[in-house]
From TrEMBL:
PANTHER family: E3 UBIQUITIN-PROTEIN LIGASE HECTD3 (PTHR46654:SF1). Keywords: Ubl conjugation pathway. This is HECT domain-containing protein. Residues 50-183 form the HECT domain. It comes from Artemia franciscana. The keyword Translocase does not apply. PROSITE patterns: HECT (PS50237).
């Protein structure tokens, strides 16, 4: 029975190449489209993660780090997930971008990330699919991912419509900018109305 297994397939991951490719690219990406990152390497091995493997109660894969003497008794698996979460947020992989408030260092959600709307190639879609698998594994096993996604991202994943207040949470200038185009003389009254206050 699948649930009696201790782990899924053994996957080889090369963490040593990540730094080499990040500095070689000059863009921060680990290889073209982030494929040399640990996250990218796991995306390419995603086909090994069958529904039966994903139903395992603990380790969905066993890690062998190339060139490292790590015996994965659970630590390598956890380390690989932590490494992937770090890569998603440090620019090694192009799936997430800092919120506009974070880039401008103003407003709320400055330390949060949004899904990158320009990541639309087939490899990016595969990476998003693998990110969804990671989220599913985290929910099912009760092991949270160290990802700082902005609240509106979670609302979109849950199928909840966004409000102007949600947009302002990640980009404080967006609604104000839109309202200034619509009615340049009454921006503050329009903003209060959009955010649930009275004009």
């Amino acid at each position: 029975m699948v649930r009696d297994r201790q782990h899924g397939p053994v996957v080889e991951l090369n963490r040593l190449q990540v730094c080499r490719y990040r500095s070689k690219q000059g863009t921060g990406l680990a290889g073209s489209d982030g494929l040399k990152s640990v996250f990218g390497q796991m995306t390419l091995k995603m086909s090994q993660l069958t529904p039966e493997i994903l139903a395992l109660p603990h380790r969905n894969w066993k890690v062998k780090f190339v060139g490292e003497s790590v015996d994965d008794c659970g630590g390598g698996y956890s380390e690989s997930i932590a490494e992937m979460c770090e890569e998603l947020q440090n620019g090694s992989v192009p799936l997430l971008i800092m919120t506009p408030n974070g880039r401008e260092e103003s407003g709320t959600s400055r330390d949060c990330f949004l899904l990158n709307p320009t990541a639309r190639s087939q490899i990016h879609l595969d990476m998003f699919r693998f990110l969804g698998m990671l989220m599913g594994i985290a929910i099912r096993t009760g092991s949270p991912l160290n990802l700082t996604l902005a609240e509106p991202v979670w609302k979109q994943i849950a199928g909840i419509n966004l409000t102007p207040a949600d947009i302002t949470e990640v980009d404080k200038d967006y609604i104000t900018g839109i309202l200034s185009f619509l009615n340049p003389l009454n921006v503050s009254a329009g903003l209060k109305c959009c955010l649930g206050g009275k004009p």
